[in-house]
Design brief:
Blueprint (H helix, E strand, L loop, with lengths): L2 H7 L14 H14 L1 H5 L5 H8 L3 H17 L1 H11 L1 H19 L5 H30 L4 H8 L2 H19 L1
Length: about 180
């Protein structure tokens, strides 16, 4: 890949005039799914709460720290996500976030102690959630001006949709498996 092409995929798009739609609708749908798979997963974590308490033989307060650390890392590393998005572009940061979330969740599946979950889900996946979520929120402003508030509101319903769908689906899956 030439140097010019590598620069194109590693920088932010800057429009002189906001297009108010077009490719922005794909970005809005993508934001919906990022909402589903970030906050939807985080808020559906309670379905596994009792299973984790039994599996690790730990108290509810020690298990609660898993998501507490994840949300702390998600919010505390927001400036880092902003700097990386400005420097390398939104796409690359969101892809890095997806890789971190995947690595954290796969690693968590092999956890033997609760502190392994603190690191895998709390730190690694929390950082990935930050890198996935925050750039998608800010990128909508590049594609929408007049309808920005409506598009952001509709795309943000992904969190509610996930909470509505994931809890019963995960519960049914747990009973089946």
């Amino acid at each position: 890949m030439s140097h010019k092409k590598s620069q194109l995929c590693c920088r932010a798009n800057v429009y002189t005039q906001v297009p108010d739609g077009g490719w922005g609708w794909v970005v809005a749908v993508s934001f919906f799914f990022v909402e589903v798979f970030t906050y939807g997963i985080i808020k559906s974590f309670g379905v596994f709460f009792n299973d984790l308490m039994d599996s690790f033989n730990e108290s509810n307060s020690r298990i609660s720290w898993i998501i507490s650390i994840c949300v702390f890392v998600l919010t505390f590393t927001a400036p880092l996500s902003t700097v990386l998005s400005s420097r390398f572009g939104h796409r690359l940061v969101v892809m890095l976030g997806g890789l971190l979330v995947s690595a954290g969740m796969v690693t968590a599946a092999f956890s033997q102690k609760v502190y392994h979950m603190y690191i895998a889900i709390g730190i690694v996946s929390g950082l990935g959630f930050c890198f996935s979520f925050l750039p998608t929120v800010t990128i909508l402003s590049q594609y929408f001006d007049r309808r920005r508030s409506v598009v952001t509101a509709v795309a943000s319903t992904g969190e509610c949709f996930a909470m509505f769908a994931f809890a019963p689906a995960i519960t049914a899956l747990k009973e089946t498996v």
